[in-house]
Amino acid sequence: MDSWTFLLNGLWIALQPKNLLLCFIGCFWGSIVGVLPGLGPLAGMALLLPLTFTLDPAGAIIMLSGIFYGAMYGGSTTSILMRIPGEAASVVTCIDGYAMAQKGRAGAALSIAAIGSFVGGVFSVFGLMLLAPRLANAMLAIGPAAEFTILLAALAISIFAANGSVVKIIAMIALGLMLAMIGLDPLTATPRFTFGSLQLSDGLSFAAMAIGLFGVSEILMSFSQGLTERPKAPRLAEMLPTKREVKEAAMPTVRGSFIGFIFGIVPGVGHIVSTFASYAVEKALSRKPEEFGKGAVAGVAGPETANNATTGAAMIPLLVLGIPAIPVTAVLLSALTIHGIQPGPMLIAQHPQIFWGLIASMLIGNLMLVVLNLPLVSLFVSMLRLPYGYLAPTVLLICIIGVYSIKASAFDLSVMVAFGILGYGLRLLSFDIAPLLLAFVLGDRLEVNFRRALTISEGEYAIFLKGPAAQLAAAMAVAVMIGVIALKWRQKRAARA
Amino acid sequence: MSIRNGFGRVASVLALSLLATPAFAETYPTRPVTMIVPAPTGGGTDVFARVLAEIVEADLKQKFVVENRGGAGGTLGTTQVVTAKPDGYTIGFIWNSPLTTSPHSLNVAYTPDSYRAVMSIGYSSYVICAQPNFPAKDAKEMIEALKAPGAKFTYGNDGVGGTMQLAAERIFRELGVKVRGIPFAGAGETAKNFLGGHVDFYGGSLPPIIEHEKAGKAKCLLLTSAGRNQALPGAMGLSEINLNKAETVLWWGLIVPAGVPDDVVAKLERAFISAAASDKFRDTMAKQGATLRVLPGKATDALIRDELKALGEVAASLGILRRAQ
Description:
The complex is a heterodimer of chains A (497) and B (325). Chain A is mainly alpha-helical and 497 residues long. Chain A has one domain (3-496). Chain A has helices at residues 3-14, 17-35, 41-48, 57-82, 93-102, 106-141, 144-161, 166-180, 206-225, 243-263, 270-285, 298-314, 316-321, 327-338, 347-350, 352-381, 388-407, 410-428, 434-456, 468-496, and strands at residues 183-184, 191-192. Chain A starts with a helix and ends with a helix. The model of chain A has no long low-confidence stretch (mean pLDDT 87). The relative contact order of chain B is 0.18. Chain B has helices at 2-27, 44-60, 75-82, 97-105, 139-147, 163-175, 187-195, 207-214, 262-276, 279-287, 297-318, and strands spanning 33-37, 64-68, 90-95, 115-124, 126-130, 154-157, 180-183, 201-205, 219-223, 250-257, 291-296. Chain B is elongated, with a radius of gyration of 22 Å. With 325 residues, chain B is of the alpha/beta class. Chain B folds into two domains: 31-123 and 252-318, Bordetella uptake gene, domain 1 (D-Maltodextrin-Binding Protein, domain 2), CATH 3.40.190.150; 126-246, D-Maltodextrin-Binding Protein, domain 2. Mean pLDDT of chain B is 87; it is low at 1-8. Chains A and B meet through α3, α6, α14 and α19 of A and α2, α3, β7, α7 and α8 of B.
């Protein structure tokens, strides 16, 4: 039997009423935890995991995966409407998505994000289906050295993706990397900058930082600027993207699908890296790069597609090798082991009903999600009709609930407030805070992989060029850096002309 | 007079409490019990806690509410258990790391005297696996290869200061060999790097590697438990290389804050031991690849104290000891 016959069998499994219902519950719950800032797919899946104890394994994994990709749909909602990133993967959308909303195009931005998510999601399912075994081997080839180089390239990309002067962007990256140092040293367990606090031994909470830097700082900004610049609440007729916006979104969506899927092989941080990469590519290819940061349609369409396209690839290590490379797939793994199924290299052969049922359910689930999300656009946008005197406290409340919901930690709330004030200060001085967050997310892995590589090689730097994966990664990193310098130079010249 | 009065008051309080406790234990629990699990939802610890809670609920006719309090290697949730009111309504289902491993590297505010071990349910071993082309057919040959002059090998572990690392280092220390540890974020990441050939040995829990061993991608040679495990027939237990005293495994048990009345502890001990021995729980343990070994409170307490001391010595020799013991 070939893949397509298996897929038909999978569809038969996924279309059974019980599995269809589970898929819907997963997608629906995923959308909710995605929309709520703070609560991400990981927490959403963990909350429903006990429910799966009584289900059959295929049903359990269909529902839990629905939460995973469903959350990637919802993540952009608060980014666009309130400048609060719902997940790490929606940080980039806070830039142009929110700027579009400020121009009264919130409905268009949300619709484009939903459609892009659908295209990216479906694309990644086909990628997973057709390329999974081959990509699994590529993933194994990426060791600590190659991963370090890839992450370094991602930071270089963010220099181009971000707005403002290069010096300021690099300063933000450095600050992000330094903040990532807080916590236990990954190789010696020495506490760094924890001041003896157990809470800080885990490092700062990303969600608390991100929500503070973006969401809280935005509220502070609007107070100091007065209430003059509030977004116009769009009328119903203005909800849908215009013909021109659709045209501007089309190619970024296609490119975002490829970029997202490829970056899915970067362990752990694929979602956020792919959004920055897609944003940078769109900015580089755009005929009007000066629009980026001020509401460029491509700056929403590309990244929102890319983060959904990453999801399929992120599941490959689990499904093909039985290795949970990221926390989210570790929850999927534990849902299977509870039923006595130990995923491994033979999962697809031994339990085809699970693999193909899941693949088919992901296609159906993506369809459900776009049907579910598009009508919600008008509901979400109508929130912006609230007078700002009501909207601002609502946004602040959402920020607080979002941060508190993760660990019920009052300490995280203080982190959020502190970073809100810091974000306000940085924005007054026109620093772009997106690269700070990217550097913070990548910082841990960048450091630990650098040191792992050198521990393995006993201090020999040659390890960064050892083996095809490391060489390829190094070539890519050099190309990216040359590209970034060239593009920055072109920008400068264009600005002068 | 005031002294005698004071004495009298203390005596009467004592007498009252002595009278009151049996009555208290007879009716305990009269309201829902909070069972803190210092790990996020979904891991082995959480699954065991939930299944046990369900069985005990039916027995004691009261809700046992599982509350996940992850963070700082389980020490945040454990701190919450030991500082709770010692009335038996806050109990903790934990794995051994926050009790016997983390105290060496983190500044925790508890010792074995701050809590009381109620019982423990069993364990899961860690395993050390070599690459398929490694020139050794069993653990003894592997040790010879490690001891060979100029031997330079790396092994992946679950993270610095974690139980897995200390378990492996405890064995290496006894053998007098040095293997460079490369810390990963968990057994999944270790397995990925091992299968990709980036480290020479896999060190971690059994489940991520079992299927790969069956597929011939790994040669699992040595367990960190004294005995063998049927899932990995090729791996020796420590008793076969005369190292049973270096056994370190991942185990799970129930603790309560120090000061919980004896008979409440006894009631919990009885209920959880019978729950752990049930068929349903036996099945849960088997599916997670863990070995059932039910110990009462006294034996669990001795295990904790011994392990804490032994791992403290290993941590000191690795230079990761942060606290005077």
